[in-house]
Each structure stands twice: as C-alpha cells, then as structure tokens.
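Write out the 3D structure for:
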Amino acid sequence: MINLLDMDTVQIEVTNQCVRQCANCSRHVGHHQKPFFMDFEQFKQAIDSMVGYPRMIGLQGGEPLLHPDFEKMCEYASSKFPKEQLGLWTTFPKGFEKYREIICNTFYHIFLNDHTRDDIYHHPGLVAIEEIIKHRKLMWAVIDKCWAQQCWSASINPNGAFFCEIAAALSLLFGGKGWNIEPEWWWRTPKDFTEQIEKFCPKCGFAINIARRSSNDDIDDISPLNYELLKDTSPKLKQGRYKIHNLQTVQELEPLASYKDLEYRENIAKRYGIFLMHNEYDFLTPYLYKNFRITNL
C-alpha cells in the first residue's frame, strides 16, 4: 500500500449514474437499485476538505456530466483550486455538448474514454480474492501489493473518504462508511487504512491475476459468495447478466490501456468541438475549436 499523498489524484465521485453499463464496471453500474447523485453541499464539503492538497482533484462517476449540478460543481471547484489541479473523467456523452466551455475553463486534465472499443478491458472487481486465496497470510500479502491502490486514486463518495476508489465503490454495494470528510484527511498513511482494508479488500478482485473482460460484453464476472450477497438486490444479477467465476488465476493479464490511443480520444472530443493536447503530466488538456456549432442538442 502507498500513502495517499503518493497518489496522483483524489477522486470526488459525484454520481454512479452512467450512459453505459460496461462489463465489470469498477463503479458497479447496473448493480444498484437506484443511482446516487452527490448532494451539492456534500460536494462543497469534499472540495473544502482538499484545500492544501498538492496534487490533482478529479471529478468522476459514473458519468459526471449527468449530475444536475455539474455546472455549479465546476464553478465551486474553480473557486477553490487552480485549473491545473482539476481533472475530469468522462465519456463526453451525447446531449451534453453545452458544457464544452465550462469543461475547458475548469479542467486542465481530461481522462476521456467512451468504452465503445472491444479492446478496452475491465478487471473483474466482484471476484473476491478471499474465495481464491484461502491462506489468509498469503491473501493479505497479495492485497498489500495491489496495483489498483498503487496506481489509481483515493476517493470521496456519499459514504465518506476512502484510501482506494475501488473500496469506495464496494461500500455502496456491501455497506460500510469511510472516514469523515474533513480537512487534511488525505494525510493518512497505510497504518491508517487497516479498518477499510479488512472490510473491503477480501471481497475485491483487483489485487489478483484473473482474466479481464471486454467492457463491451454485457455480463459481469462474480465469485460465488459475492453472488449470494448481491443476488436479491442487484438488478444486473436479476437480469441474468453475469457469469459465476471459476476462481482460476492467469499468468498474464489483458492490457487495460488500449483507450490511451490518442486518435480514439481525439475523435470523441470532436463531438464537443474540443481538441486535446498532451500536457506535462501525461494527461490531456482540452481546448475549444473556434466556430463550432452544437447541432445535436
């Protein structure tokens, strides 16, 4: 595990509503009876708690542009942080091109992926490592080296603040609260993560090598015990859109990163009359095309 300050980003999860229901979505879209939209007052609390944080603050979903207060959220975030510290994770969904100017004015960093390619793979987060590795000491050793916690983000959602964005998403499925959203919560180090690790990591599959699935598949992989926990509440499971995992590991993982093809992302951005340029942080900065007319609203 790594310190929160060693992560590139802390995500503020403003909704788990999305325009898609990808296979093995890390936010478990399709498994919730009702998606959440973060209350604007809680969003302000989340932004205020990050004051002094030296790295990036991201807005993520689901699809953040679906939030009815998206524009207000951008304005508030901009009032607290410079553009260079703000990022947006989005699909640029059709029908929301009206936000093109506020996106370019607010965010220096864009992570753009509409999940329409068959070679975009998602890791099966609902395959529980505790069902695969029965030796508890070995399981905890593998969890301690989890690539997702070391490469992705800490997170804030309506359940509080979390050391890992995947743990935050699992809290919405299995229950459990994060830390209070208060100033400087992000100073925590691995010794402070114990309660959250013990609650969420055993039910997660990100730390272990298990076969990934194309995001365009219509089903999720899930381990038997997690299926039993969710079968009575998950709409996606009730619809039969799942496969019970065989609990087998693999030697090599399919790459997640095909969507980093720049031409693919540039074509998505053109829908909004936006062009993208690589910045010094290896993200993309959005700029407006002049004389672009929105024709599909």
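The chain has one domain: 4-257.
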